[in-house]
Design brief:
Length: about 60
């Protein structure tokens, strides 16, 4: 599939490094965006628990610096 893939690496202090990936195809209109962590979570970080009530709640990424 012809298209354009963009990658961006960023660091959230006291948390981890992230890779943000974005794909778009001008030919067919397909597009997607994805984030992945690329480092370990540090000892200074904290955990937030999300309570999912519906399927829509599971279609979210949450990053807080």
């Amino acid at each position: 599939m012809p298209g354009l893939m963009k990658l961006c690496q960023t660091s959230i202090p006291h948390f981890t490094d992230l890779i943000i990936m974005s794909f778009s195809c001008d030919f067919c209109g397909a597009h997607s965006t994805e984030t992945k962590n690329s480092g370990i979570i540090t000892n200074k970080s904290s955990t937030i628990t999300l309570k999912a009530i519906s399927l829509t709640d599971l279609k979210r990424d949450l990053f807080k610096s």
